[in-house]
Design brief:
Blueprint (H helix, E strand, L loop, with lengths): L2 E4 L7 H15 L4 E4 L6 H9 L2 E4 L11 E4 L6 H9 L3 E4 L3 H20 L2 E5 L5 H8 L6 E3 L14 E5 L5 H14 L4 E3 L5 H15 L3 E5 L5 H13 L3 E4 L15 E6 L5 H20 L3
Parallel strand pairs: 1-12, 2-3, 2-4, 4-5, 6-7, 6-8, 8-9, 10-11, 10-12
Helix pairs in contact: 4-5, 7-8
C-alpha cells in the first residue's frame, strides 16, 4: 500500500485568504473587479479568479478607469498608488495584510526619527517585491534595501542603524544578515523582528514533514519568493523534493518503488491545487501498483 499526505502547514496565509475572500465577494455579485498586480503569486489561482471575471492591471491603468472597483492585494502599495486610484473616483478595496500595514507604520515612524538622528533605515528583502517597494516608500525611497550579505557594503557603519525585514523572508537568513551588521556597526543598532510568525514557523514544520516522506511535491508559483524559500528548506532535508506549479509538471517515473508521498506548498498555494495534485498522484500510484504502467 501507499500513502499520500498534504501537509497541514501549507496553503494560504491569513493575508492572502483575506484578499481572495474580498475579491470573491465582489465577483460572486457579478461586479467588475480590477486588481492591481497579481493578487497572489500563483498562476493557477490567478487563472481561476480571472475566469470569474477579475481583471489584473498595472497601477497606471487605474488612471484610465472611473467609478470602478479596484483591489489592492495583501502585499501593500506605495502612496502614489492610492493617489492614482482616487483620480477616477474609483472604489478602493484595500486588502493589504494587517501585518504588512503594521510594518509600514513602524518603518514610517522609524524614518521620521531617522531624519532627526541621522540614522539609516535598512530593509532586508527583494528589491522588486511589491511589499518591499511599498515599505521603501515609507522612507521616501531613502532607505537601503539589502538582498544578500554583500549588499551591506552600502551601509555607513558609523551612523545609527535600524533594520527591518520583509515579512516573508527566511528567519535564518535575516539573523545572519543582522549578525554581520552587528559585527561591523560602530554606532547604535536596532533590530526589528518583523518576519510574519505564521510564515516563519512553516519552514521548520515543512522540513519535519518532508523528512517522513520518500517523495515530496512542493506546489508553488514561479514568482513566489515564499515558495522558493520553503522549497529550498524542504530540499535541504529531502533530496527527493520536487518543485511543481501543477500536476502537469509531475514525472510519474519518480513514483516507482515509492510508498510515502508528501505534498506541501507556500503561503500563496491554494488548497484546491494541492488537492488536485493529490488526486493526480493517487491515480498514478494506482496504475503503478496494478502494473499497468
Amino acid at each position: 500500500m501507499y500513502s499520500i499526505e498534504i501537509s497541514s502547514d501549507s496553503g494560504f496565509c491569513f493575508g492572502v485568504i483575506n484578499a481572495i475572500d474580498k475579491a470573491e465577494t465582489i465577483l460572486n455579485n457579478n461586479e467588475t473587479l480590477y486588481c492591481v498586480g497579481d493578487i497572489v503569486h500563483n498562476e493557477q489561482e490567478i487563472k481561476r479568479l480571472e475566469s470569474m471575471g477579475m481583471n489584473i492591471i498595472p497601477i497606471d491603468d487605474s488612471l484610465k478607469l472611473s467609478n470602478q472597483t479596484i483591489l489592492f492585494r495583501a502585499h501593500g502599495e506605495p502612496k502614489a498608488s492610492y493617489n492614482k486610484v482616487k483620480i477616477g473616483k474609483n472604489n478602493l478595496i484595500d486588502a493589504t495584510c494587517p501585518i504588512v500595514l503594521a510594518l509600514q507604520d513602524k518603518i514610517a515612524k522609524a524614518y521620521s526619527s531617522s531624519i532627526k538622528n541621522n540614522s539609516q533605515i535598512i530593509i532586508f528583502g527583494k528589491k522588486t517585491h511589491p511589499e518591499v517597494i511599498a515599505l521603501l516608500d515609507k522612507t521616501e525611497n531613502n532607505g537601503i534595501v539589502i538582498e544578500q550579505i554583500n549588499d551591506i557594503d552600502f551601509i555607513d557603519f558609523l551612523k545609527p542603524i535600524e533594520i527591518f525585514s520583509q515579512t516573508t523572508k527566511a528567519p535564518k537568513e535575516y539573523q545572519e544578515i543582522c549578525e554581520k551588521i552587528k559585527f561591523k556597526s560602530k554606532n547604535t543598532l536596532k533590530i526589528h523582528d518583523t518576519i510574519c510568525k505564521q510564515v516563519s514557523s512553516r519552514g521548520e514544520k515543512l522540513q519535519e514533514f518532508s523528512k517522513t516522506k520518500e517523495v515530496v511535491y512542493f506546489v508553488g508559483g514561479a514568482k513566489s519568493s515564499n515558495s522558493k524559500v520553503l522549497f529550498s528548506l524542504c530540499k535541504q532535508v529531502n533530496s527527493n523534493t520536487y518543485f511543481i506549479e501543477s500536476e502537469r509538471d509531475i514525472d510519474s517515473k519518480i513514483l516507482y518503488n515509492k510508498t510515502k508521498i508528501g505534498i506541501c506548498g507556500a503561503t500563496s498555494t491554494p488548497q484546491w491545487l494541492m488537492q488536485k495534485v493529490m488526486q493526480f498522484v493517487d491515480s498514478e500510484m494506482k496504475q503503478i501498483m496494478s502494473g499497468i504502467t
